[in-house]
């Protein structure tokens, strides 16, 4: 995988909540989906995902950072640790990441076709 999860920051604070990622190699962001999960009553991770964000098509370079804010905002560019930073906004009206410990999953996808319902 050429994109890696680094951290979830400010979980539970809609104004600041975000996930930070970094590219290990040049890649297309639309090959990735980030999601959270639910937990079973015994505290184990389930395979049920509540929120999913599919990144838009955008080329990024090795070493670039990507930050995904939960709140509404306008995608933009900047720098972080002297490297390019690509800011994205999920547009969710409530927090995604719980203060008591959610698990983020980064999925790499390959689209080989699309089918629409009739």
Describe the structure.
The structure is a single chain. Helices cover 0% and strands 40% of the residues. With 118 residues, it is an all-beta fold. The strands form 3 sheets. A 5-stranded mixed beta sheet has the order 1-2-7-9-8, with no helix packed on it. Strands 5-4-10 form a 3-stranded antiparallel beta sheet, with no helix packed on it. Strands 3-6 form a two-stranded antiparallel sheet. β1 (3-9) and β2 form a beta hairpin. It is globular and about 40 Å long. The mean pLDDT is 90.
Short characterization:
The chain has 118 residues and is mostly beta strands. The chain has strands at residues 3-9, 18-23, 27-28, 32-36, 52-54, 59-60, 65-69, 76-80, 83-89, 104-108. It is built from no helices and ten strands.
- Let me know the average pLDDT: 90
Secondary-structure element string: EEEEEEEEEE
Compute the number of structural domains.
Answer: 1
How many helices? The count is 0
Rounded to the nearest angstrom, the distance between the terminal CA atoms is: 35 Å
CATH topology: Immunoglobulin-like
- Please estimate the helix content: under 10%
Extract low-pLDDT stretches: none
CATH class: Mainly Beta
Strand content: 35-45%
Radius of gyration: 15 Å
Largest sheet: 5 strands, mixed
Structural class: mainly beta
């Amino acid at each position: 995988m050429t994109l890696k999860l680094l951290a979830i920051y400010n979980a539970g604070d809609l104004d600041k909540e975000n996930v930070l990622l970094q590219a290990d190699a040049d890649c297309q962001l639309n090959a990735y989906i980030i999601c959270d999960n639910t937990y079973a009553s015994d505290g184990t991770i389930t395979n049920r995902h509540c929120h999913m964000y599919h990144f838009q098509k955008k080329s990024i370079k090795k070493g670039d950072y990507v930050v995904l804010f939960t709140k509404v905002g306008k995608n933009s560019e900047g720098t972080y640790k002297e490297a390019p930073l690509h800011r994205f906004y999920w547009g969710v009206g409530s927090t995604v990441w719980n203060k008591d410990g959610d698990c983020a999953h980064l999925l790499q996808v390959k689209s080989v076709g699309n089918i629409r319902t009739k």
